[in-house]
Design goal:
CATH superfamily: NAD(P)-binding Rossmann-like Domain
Largest sheet: 7 strands, parallel
Oligomer: single chain
Number of domains: 1
CATH class: Alpha Beta
Distance between the termini: 36 Å
Number of strands: 7
Number of helices: 8
Strand order of the largest sheet: 3-2-1-4-5-6-7
Length: 249
């Protein structure tokens, strides 16, 4: 794996989970990283952990659904580190339920965080990447974009993220910016540990590999797309799901 020395990476939702692991892997390879979340305490704690390891890091509490907050965050990163080269649109959330039980608020917050946030962040970094003639935008979708019962807002938002990925790849390809999408399946997170045993068993029965993924499975894939090694790959959806994307249900 080649170095990311001299690159600056912004990872949204990176004070915990997959985002935090991705930020850590990038920092270990020399990147300067921007930790983003909406919970100040989590950002402060994560930044402190990174600084204790000698990494170049800054934290930014910002709501990615707010255009002004996103613009200010990106500018602060450029002012601090001199550039913004890699954007990982990782922040996401889900309001799930049967169609008849979902509210307009459930739809709005799910689509805003998963899709609008990625749009606003991509728009904010666009000029900095194009001006430099090099950039990487990596969107974290989900296998759920293929559809899933009880996931109308989430599946729709993630399908929109795939569409955004393909469109930006076409717009920015000649500017030296690649745009790709990773679609994780079941990943071992605190949410997985909190599920009842019967639910975990039911999910595992549908896994072709009989297991779930780990944060590192996603972080390592993001690292690949962030590197020069992936310079001729753009507009793609890469599944990291243990084969779960091969069938519905």
């Amino acid at each position: 794996m080649e170095t990311l020395q001299g690159k600056t990476a912004l990872i949204t939702g990176s004070a915990s989970g997959m985002g935090k692991k991705t930020a850590m892997r990038m920092a270990e390879r020399g990147a300067k990283v921007v930790i983003n979340d909406i919970v100040p305490e989590k950002v402060e704690q994560t930044v402190a952990e990174f600084k204790a390891r000698g990494f170049e890091v800054m934290g930014r509490v910002a709501d990615i659904c707010n255009a002004s907050a996103v613009s200010e965050m990106v500018q602060a990163a450029v002012d601090t580190f001199g550039s913004l080269d890699i954007l990982v649109n990782n922040a996401g959330m889900e309001k799930a339920g049967a169609l008849r039980n979902l509210s307009e608020k459930d739809w709005d917050v799910t689509v805003n965080v998963n899709l609008k946030g990625a749009f606003l962040c991509s728009q904010a970094v666009h000029g900095h990447m194009v001006g430099k003639g090099w950039g990487r935008i990596i969107n974290i979708a989900s296998r759920a974009w293929l559809g899933g019962p009880g996931q109308a807002p989430y599946a729709s938002a993630k399908a929109g993220l795939v569409g955004l990925t393909r469109t930006l790849a076409l717009e920015l390809g000649r500017k030296g910016v690649t745009v790709n999408c990773i679609a994780p399946g079941l990943i071992h997170t605190p949410m997985w540990d909190e599920l009842p045993e019967k639910n975990r068993t039911a999910f595992l029965e549908k896994q072709p590999m009989g297991k779930i993924g780990e944060d590192d499975d996603i972080a390592n894939t993001i690292l690949f797309f962030a590197n020069e090694e992936a310079s001729f790959i753009t507009g793609q959806v890469f599944y990291v799901c243990g084969g779960r994307s091969l069938f519905a249900g």
